[in-house]
Amino acid sequence: MWKTVKQHPIGSYLGITAGCALTAVGLALFLVPNRIAAGGVSGLATVLHYVLGVPVGLTMLVLNVPLFLAGLKILGFHFGLKTLYGTVVLSVLTDFLVWVARPPTFNPLLASIYGGLLTGAGLGVVFRFGGSTGGTDLAALLFRKLLHISAGMGLLVTDALVIGLAGLVFNMELALYALLSLFLTSRAIDAIQEGSGYAKAAIIISDHSEEIARRILTELDRGATGIQGRGLYTRKEREILLVVVHRSEVTRLKDLVATLDPQAFVIVSNVHEVLGEGFREWREV
């Protein structure tokens, strides 16, 4: 779905608009009314809104200029156009919603949870369509480009100082709520960017790998890859199996292995995204 929309001439801008709308809802209806400055330019704008009385969206637009220029130089002119578009759309939508919408809650815990998830989901959609809304989410993309860390982790690092400032201006309790919101935003961004962990990868080390692989193929209808390995303590050569299954199939896989070899060594880990036969097709990316 993502790839189909992105390939349309205006599809990426429609995706960026939708992401900006989600982010604006999170800011205007949850975070700003409850004085939760969950990092970044939006957090600084929230602090300035209560200290100086300036509009949140307009302040975000002004503060984004230096980061926009940096992004234009490092990430390219085409990305810069999308960043400018996302920055303006988010600023306008945020001020519009602050003006016309009534916040659904003034409970800071609920506001931090729903505000963090909505803003994170919105930013993740914007990133997925190759854009940015400026602010420290742009800084996060710069970190990913230069330091090779995830966008969500980059955002978490760059926003920590802003939360500290908000704690000094407001109070430490609101800073703690802001930290919770920032964590949820970071997780939501990575979930949209990298997938939600719907699959599991299993590494199976056993003296009965051939029989285990055969049963996986016939009973689970899943492929298995054999990798030659050698135990450094025993110096024994053996075949290591790599298997990827849906979460619902993990229990069946473990029971199968336990039945054939109770002494097998099995490692099961989360997989964010799987492309290929039996999972998502490449054309869906």
Task: List descriptors.
single chain; 285 residues; alpha+beta; Alpha-Beta Plaits; 2 domains; four-stranded antiparallel beta sheet; 12 helices; elongated
Describe the SSE topology.
Elements: H1 2-7, H2 11-31, H3 40-52, H4 56-63, H5 65-75, H6 77-100, H7 108-128, H8 135-147, H9 151-169, H10 172-194, E1 199-205, H11 209-220, E2 225-230, E3 237-246, H12 250-260, E4 265-271
Antiparallel strand pairs: 1-3, 1-4, 2-3
Helix pairs in contact: 2-6, 2-7, 3-4, 3-9, 4-6, 5-6, 5-8, 7-10, 8-9, 9-10, 11-12
Structure in words:
It is a multi-pass membrane protein. It is found in: Cell membrane. One of its GO terms (cellular component) is plasma membrane. With 285 residues, this protein is α+β, with helices and mostly antiparallel strands. It has two domains: 2-194, no CATH class; 199-284, 2-Layer Sandwich (Alpha-Beta Plaits). 64% of the residues lie in helices and 11% in strands. It contains twelve helices and four strands. The chain has helices at 2-7, 11-31, 40-52, 56-63, 65-75, 77-100, 108-128, 135-147, 151-169, 172-194, 209-220, 250-260; strands at residues 199-205, 225-230, 237-246, 265-271. A four-stranded antiparallel β-sheet has the order 2-3-1-4, with helices on one face. Helix 5 packs parallel to helix 8 (135-147) and helix 8 crosses helix 9. It is elongated, with a radius of gyration of 23 Å. The termini are close together. 39% of the residues are buried. The model has no long low-confidence stretch (mean pLDDT 82).
